[in-house]
Amino acid sequence: MTGQTPAEVLAEVRGRTGFITLHRPRALNALSLGMVRALYQVLRQWQQDPAVLAIAIRGQGREGPFGAFCAGGDIRFLHQAAVDGNPQLEDFFTEEYQLNHLTHHLGKPYIAFMDGVVMGGGMGISQGASLRIVTERTRMAMPETAIGLFPDVGGGFFLSRTPGHVGEYLGLTGATIGAGDAVAVGLADGYLPAERLPALWEALAGDFADGPAIADYVRAQLQPVPSPMAAHREVIDRVFALPTLTAMAQALQDAGSDWAAETLRLLRQRSPLMLHVVLEQIRRARALGLADDLRMERDLVRNCFYLREDRRRNSETIEGIRALAIDKDQRPQWKPARIEEVDAAEVQAFFASPWPAPLHPLAHLR
Fold this sequence. Notes:
- GO terms for molecular function: 3-hydroxyisobutyryl-CoA hydrolase activity.
- Keywords: Hydrolase.
- Pfam families: ECH_2.
- Strand 3 (about 55-60) and strand 4 (about 65) form a beta hairpin.
- The chain has helices at about 35-45, 75-85, 90-105, 120-125, 155-160, 165-175, 180-185, 195-205, 210-220, 235-240, 245-255, 260-270, 270-285, 290-305, 310-315, 315-325, 345-350; strands at about 10-15, 15-20, 55-60, 65, 110-115, 115-120, 130-135, 140, 190.
- Strands 1, 2, 3, 4, 5, 7 and 9 form a seven-stranded mixed beta sheet that branches. Strands 6-8 form a two-stranded parallel ribbon.
- Helices cover about 45% and strands about 10% of the residues.
- It has a single domain, classed as 2-enoyl-CoA Hydratase, Chain A, domain 1, CATH 3.90.226.
- By secondary structure, the protein is of the alpha/beta class.
């Protein structure tokens, strides 16, 4: 029909495999509320369909399939919804976290083709996959502290389970990593050159006996890849194991290396308040299962916008998105301005749930 909006999520079954393509290439497949709802609906349908043995998901690039997976959530929408008091802001996070939970519990192979940018919400819909494929084009990050947010979508759960203290490093700095580092720290399962993705995607429509056979076929294609981060693992684990951000900043300053200087520069750019929140989040999450972590993150994200009566005016998140994506001045006015000035009581207030436990919007997750 003329004027109809093109679908942002394309889904089809070929052979015994369900194929999903995120189809919002101009926005690098950033997730809208409609996309979250479409993904949840199709995954639930295929989860319950015995004719579907496995599920594969990819992103549409600007020049064709692959090349971009998902750049996160639609932060422009989140900013406008927060400023307007639009209740769809609450719907977005509740439904996105339900989707994240579902991807971990599909009960059949779920194969994520993590080519190109994989950030924020893109991590949320891929970290639950049984096979996570990265390429030489993969740019992976949880960069939320740059917009005054925290690594949500289960970020506390999957970052806290990386080796050593890599989770604190990635969550606090928002550093971008490539394929080799993603595999090395357990955020991907294997590497494949991008040129081989189309053939593998098509092969999944072939005649397979069962879901494990499809997963075995994919696993056999994956190749080893070196990890540049390996050269810095000792200092990462030493610095990011320290008990406070002030101690981390001092240790990076004392280290005297180019890598340490760049890491400290990244930290100093982020929201000081949210850095403290993120450190607490990741350390709490080490003792939590996925459902409890998502409930904690749902509390946190609510408090990012509505912690105090004036939070909508003074929200770090709204200010961070304004500076990065709305006005694009790249000069967020963080409050407070320095890591050393953050009040511990304000950090703890983020972890207070606005809901009684039985009425929590994610109370049903197990």
